[in-house]
From TrEMBL, chain A:
Residues 611-632 are annotated as: Disordered. The keyword Oxidoreductase applies. GO terms for molecular function: iron ion binding; oxidoreductase activity. It comes from Geodermatophilus amargosae. Keywords: Molybdenum, Oxidoreductase. This is Xanthine dehydrogenase, molybdenum binding subunit apoprotein. The lineage of its organism: Bacteria, Bacillati, Actinomycetota, Actinomycetes, Geodermatophilales. Residues 20-135 form the Aldehyde oxidase/xanthine dehydrogenase a/b hammerhead domain.
From TrEMBL, chain B:
Gene3D superfamilies: 3.10.20.30, [2Fe-2S]-binding domain. The keyword Metal-binding applies. Residues 13-89 form the 2Fe-2S ferredoxin-type domain. Keywords: 2Fe-2S, Iron, Iron-sulfur, Metal-binding, Oxidoreductase. This is Carbon-monoxide dehydrogenase small subunit. Pfam families: Fer2, Fer2_2. Pathway: Alkaloid degradation; nicotine degradation. GO terms for molecular function: 2 iron, 2 sulfur cluster binding; metal ion binding; oxidoreductase activity. InterPro entries: 2Fe-2S-bd, 2Fe-2S-bd_dom_sf, 2Fe-2S_ferredoxin-like_sf, 2Fe-2S_ferredoxin-type, 2Fe2S_fd_BS, Beta-grasp_dom_sf, Diverse_Oxidoreductases.
Amino acid sequence: MTTKLFGEPVRRREDARLIIGKGRYLDDIGAGALAAAFVRSPHAHARITDVDVEAALDVEGLVAIYTYEDLTGPMAEPLPVLIPHPQLHAPRTGYALANGMVNHVGEPVVMVVATDRYLAEDAAERIVVTYEELPVVVGVDAAREARAVVHEDIPDNVAARHHQETGDVEPTLAASPHTLSFTQYIERSACMPLEGKGVHARWDPDDASLRVHSSTQASTSVRAAIAAKLELSLDRVEVVAPDVGGGFGVKIVHPWPEELLVPMAAIRLGHEVKWAEDRREHFISSAHERQQRQEITVGYDDDGRITALDVHVWHDNGAYTPYGIIVPIVTATQLVGPYALPVYRVVVESVYTNTVIVTPYRGAGRPQGCYAMERTMDRVADALGLDRAEVRRRNLITPDQFPYDHHLTFQDGRPVIYDSGDYPGLLDKLVALVGWDEAAALRADAQARGKLLGVGMALYVEGTGPGPYEGGHVQVLGSGKVLVSTGLTSQGQGHETVFAQIVASELGVSMDDVEVHTGDTRRFGYAVGTFASRAAVMSGNAVALAARGVREKAIRIAAEVLEANPEDLEIDEGLVQVKGTPGASIPLRTVAVLSNPLRYAFDEAAKQATQFAGPGDDSKPPVAPGDAPGLEHRDYYSPIRSTFASGAHAAVVEIDPQTWEIDVVRYAVVHDCGNVVNPMIVEGQVHGGVAQGVGGALYERMAYDADGQLQNASFMDFLMPYASEVPDVVIDHQETPSPLNPLGIKGAGEAGVIPGTAAIASAIEDATGRRIASMPISPTELYDLMRDETAERTAASQQTSLQTGVPA
Amino acid sequence: MTSVDTPRIDSERTVRVTVNGVPREATVPVRRVLADALRDDLGLTGTHVGCAHGVCGSCTVLVDGDPVRSCLVLAVQVDGAEVTTVEGLAREDHQGGQVLHPVQEAFRECHALQCGFCTPGFLVTIAAGLEARDRSAEITEEEVDELVGGNLCRCTGYANIKKAVRHAAATMREDAS
Ligand code: FES
Ligand code: FES
């Protein structure tokens, strides 16, 4: 690489438009569009007995009303089960508009289209839907008991039973010197991007084609879904993700009902139609994640080495399973973390409840897995009276054990084989960074100030960058501009910058000449999407390969022109030159012109190129067999399996024993995502993830009541962290490159959020001496726990009380 | 009893506002919130609506210099006022270009935005705050917390936004001296 950009904290190019208000988000598009609004179910479980639209008909500006009766062909069928799995034995999905039944509050029942959103909502308000209410299932425990059922034909509410094991758990547990068992819970939160979902569709009747903009993480798949559901040929549909105001997983799900209904209405009405989700809609009709009940039994020896781990997870998947069982599979397989577990068994039962669907939210099952494993480590340490860091250290996979095969099957159907890492290194750095060994002094200092202080840690390994593939296209224009496109989408991760860095470095051009496009099916038709920390790994490597293809072709053409040996050529700052021979060079843009034998002299570039153009060999065709005109290359990166990033977090909490307010006073992160393309962007991802981790541990939960009503469906009541709730984060890095891909990178998008709940639970437990077995935890809950005589105390706290004579 | 003239929600009024220094006029239904009027009637889509209930701050604009949540204000309420949106933070450089406000520069320099959806609200709030304080004084952490404390961002974890505030304050301090 002649132009050093890879690895530099290059400032983001997307910012130039975003800081002056010239971003183009979904709702900024289509000023003349008709507006859609939805009548959504107010009940969690009900039969629809009547839909009366009469009163809405005289609302001024009303254009159309659609109910299930208006859906035809594939649109009248259930929404697809995107990711079927043999162990998902009872998949269920909803309809674009409810077909006689509703299974959660917020399910769309009627779509209204009017000349503006205010009027559409006026009309929606006047539509009377009559429901016959049915018994409601909320929460994993109610689902397990199955006194009521979500889907009539699934009497136990169980959608899937997923099971993996690496050996004989029962005999190993029986032979273990010690065992312990416990049950713990983790609650629901949600992605909550600041921009909700949104769809805009325009039908061109002359061209018989549809252009859809969607605030999505998977434009190519939305396109395929629309084509299938609306019975259009794929080439008649294009889908573009504009600037997207955050995703974090919720926008990977597709097709959302609105992604089908808005285009359907646009075609039927012959007019642009737009829908922009409002915040309440987002709370009650987009996806949530995280609720699980975890039953854990662990066997271990006197030194704290784990002999066997047996985990039974009850996973709340909400009302439907459009995204299959990806989240519980990720929990099941990522739970093992950085540890060598001789025997591991996991059973996940994924259950239906009358609540919003559960699909990946940043981390996608990993925070729950980490919570299970790391809290197990804490319990083992406590039972043996050992230091929590030491117990972890004794169980870590060591650097000489890579590639490390867990004998598990990952979400992509591939084996869980860790590619590289240095987990003891992470732990050492973390202990130093947070000051683990000085905890006693910190505690004493806090005590003097009337506060309880605790420290906690959590380690994780994160499968990142799963396949099957991403592609990249790189083209050099006669102007010297380098166009880069990849099909996956961006929601703020800085892909325009990162991919430009990679291409500029690979090709030897200035970053200013590189223009990157993502998530636009007009430019790149094959893509998988942005999720599972895969963008940098997948598209990063794909655009690198495409750039290498362009480079090779450029050097081949330039070698002929310069009559030089290709090996002697290099590209630097957009100039193809003979190494060490100044003057013997040709600009890359001229090579681009030369690469096309048809050269009308429209411009200076073409005129210039003629001086280099040879007479050509009369005996050969102008474009050789196997060659193509143009200086461009398309390539795909398809990995054999995921890379595995890793990290370790520690939290120091201070608790006020009067108010039981919990304050995270220090938060330390050690992070390893292989080679880093742009450290500034990676740190930004870590910061954002940690904030969501803290939110999930202390503030955020979806408060459903027993009737399935979401009690806190607003930013007023759902406590997303402001700056005042987010601790300062100190970060240290480690880089163990991945041997699996050309750039040696691993993903970084989700890491920050994964260990938050586990680390903070551990710290609170350390501070209070009470077992923390349900997260998130609020000051009120902690207060109740402290007053509960029957609440379990940690062994460590009992020892302290024996020594000091102070009741724990 | 005197009868109050309560306008119907769909009746219209003409509103005259100076937006980013330019006098503008729009005839809007009386129930239209300022955010929608700016975005849909005046085409200024830099102001974003993240919650529409006054909590997130993405829709913040300046009304007569003060930060206001434009999702909670009716367009008719700002008749006669001066409104500044994110589009109006940069100044003309008299050569056909623009000079960014120091806080805009700082956001870019400090990587204080990711998806950028919350950014306009932070920018106008912080810009107003920094303009209002004594520029020659070094900014305190309390001031920084105050300036960023009322807006939600789901992407950045706020660390770099705070950094950008310090950075912008330092630039403005240099410029002032
Ligand atoms: S949109 Fe106005 S405060 Fe959220
Ligand atoms: S940058 Fe995305 S919400 Fe703040």
